[in-house]
């Protein structure tokens, strides 16, 4: 992303599962790019969490492109109970940890959920609860050189877009599961599809059902119902909107 004025850092290798990553932070939101250095180590089948990220990557045949989103929570146990009450299948919470090179132990909990029996639907987000206060975590990441300034200026992760085949059904489900209101359905001339948005505490989740050939139809055809669009915004007045294709996904920058 450097040619577009966006900073990223090497995150490291996950030696036990054969993957490595790079990270780009926008405050405490971030994009994580994951690669595989040893497919034989991937915890597939009964060795992976039900509805876990590795399971999704395997279903996608490890194709390039956005695969899943994750949401932070401060009450992962309560969230698990809520999602279960909505009829979803829930896996976790599971505890995780890793030790940073400076010796600091990072700890978190993960939660996965999905619709039982649905094979081709849009994967739900997975959920993470970090141990400790967010302000302290942000300061630690800045001091460690993980959260870096962007040459393009201060950026927010403003939007994530998903291709879907049944817009109304999908949006109604997600609005109920995450207890938010849906916006109006509009036609998006850039993506050539019907678009509807959920506002999740300032980050927009946009769902696009293609109605003619175009960017959304191409993404749906090649990868199925998946995230395909990320919006990064400086919030500055009069900034120009720029679309770029990067590693199998679409990004807009302004």
TrEMBL record:
PANTHER family the UniProt entry points to: BLL2707 PROTEIN, GLYOXALASE-LIKE DOMAIN-CONTAINING PROTEIN
Higher taxonomy: Bacteria, Bacillati, Bacillota, Bacilli, Bacillales
Gene3D superfamilies named in the record: 2,3-Dihydroxybiphenyl 1,2-Dioxygenase, domain 1 (3.10.180.10)
Name by which UniProt lists this protein: Glyoxalase-like domain-containing protein
Annotated ranges, domain Glyoxalase-like: 5-178
Matches recorded under InterPro entries: Glyas_Bleomycin-R_OHBP_Dase, Glyoxalase-like_dom
Pfam families associated with the record: Glyoxalase_3 (PF13468)
């Amino acid at each position: 992303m450097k040619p577009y004025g966006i900073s990223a850092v090497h995150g490291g290798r996950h030696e036990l599962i054969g993957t490595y990553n790079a990270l780009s932070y926008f405050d405490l939101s971030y994009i994580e790019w994951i690669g595989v250095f040893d497919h034989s180590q991937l915890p597939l089948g009964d060795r992976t969490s039900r509805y876990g990220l590795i399971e999704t990557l395997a279903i996608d045949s490890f194709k390039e492109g956005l695969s899943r989103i994750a949401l932070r929570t401060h009450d992962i146990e309560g969230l698990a109970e809520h999602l279960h009450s909505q009829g979803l299948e829930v896996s976790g919470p599971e505890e995780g940890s890793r030790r940073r090179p400076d010796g600091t132990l990072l700890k978190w909990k993960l939660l996965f959920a999905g619709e039982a029996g649905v094979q081709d639907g849009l994967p739900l987000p997975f959920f993470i609860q970090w141990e400790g206060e967010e302000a302290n975590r942000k300061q630690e990441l800045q001091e460690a050189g993980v959260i870096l300034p962007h040459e393009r200026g201060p950026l927010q992760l403003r939007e994530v877009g998903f291709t879907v085949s049944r817009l109304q059904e999908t949006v109604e489900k997600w609005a109920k599961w995450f207890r938010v209101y849906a916006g109006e359905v509009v036609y998006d001339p850039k993506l050539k599809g019907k678009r509807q948005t959920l506002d999740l505490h300032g980050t927009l989740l946009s769902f696009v059902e293609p109605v003619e050939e175009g960017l959304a139809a191409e993404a749906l055809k090649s990868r199925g119902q998946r995230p395909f669009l990320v919006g990064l915004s400086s919030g500055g007045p009069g900034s120009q909107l720029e679309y770029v294709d990067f590693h199998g996904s679409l990004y807009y920058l302004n």
